[in-house]
Amino acid sequence: MSDDSLRPKSRLAPEPQLFADTPPEESPRPAPRPLPPAAEPAIPRPAPEPKRPLREPPAAPHRVVVTDLDISFRSMVYLMVKAALAAIPAILILLFFFFGAGAFINALTNSFVAYKSLSAGDAEKKDADIKRHAAALAASGEIKKSIRTPDSIVFDTLLVSDDAKAVCVRFRARNDFGGMTRES
């Protein structure tokens, strides 16, 4: 027996041609199966009705009056606790919003008031403060340059005159023997 006789033949696809010298075999097509006889004739279906709303809206608003609420005390307490717990996040969100809006409005009004209150006298006072500050920085810088251990200096007092022409400084620094001395 050959190997080809053991292999089942397919009805749907022809066998592949293995060698070019043998002509392909023509396999007859199977006849189409007959359709099963219809058991009953088809009944025509009626056309679907158009969709309409489940409930018609009322013609006029109705007035509702609640006369009695029959609920047990335990259920009422449970309902109130749930409502209180559900309100906590809403309250936190509202507080955050109102405090944020209040801080924003406060910042706007304070900057406006500070800008408006700056008059000519305030500008002169601010300029005098800047000059006194610059004089104090210059004096402390000169003292640091003149001592041997500038890292050890500690300023106790820096006094500057109103016109920034005189500066009085009290400081401590390490001397050559390693002790701290106070100078004016």
In short:
The chain is of the alpha+beta class and 184 residues long. The chain contains three helices and three strands.
**Spans where pLDDT lies below 50 across 5 or more residues:** none
**How would you name the oligomeric state of the polypeptide chains in this document?**
single chain
What is the overall pLDDT average?
76
Structural class estimated from helices and strands: alpha+beta
Shape: elongated
- In total, the number of strands is 3
Instruction: Describe the largest sheet.
Output: 3 strands, antiparallel
What's the arrangement of strands in the largest beta sheet?
A: 1-2-3
Order of helices and strands: HHHEEE
Distance from N terminus to C terminus (CA atoms, Å) equals 127 Å
The helical percent reads 40-55%
Instruction: Evaluate the radius of gyration.
Output: 51 Å
Report the sheet-strand fraction: 5-15%
* Number of continuous helical runs: 3
Can you describe what's shown?
The chain is of the alpha+beta class and 184 residues long. 41% of the residues lie in helices and 10% in strands. The chain contains three helices and three strands. It has helices spanning 3-6, 73-116, 120-146; strands spanning 154-160, 167-174, 180-183. A three-stranded antiparallel beta sheet has the order 1-2-3. Strand 2 and strand 3 form a beta hairpin. It is elongated and about 125 Å long. The N and C termini lie far apart (127 Å).
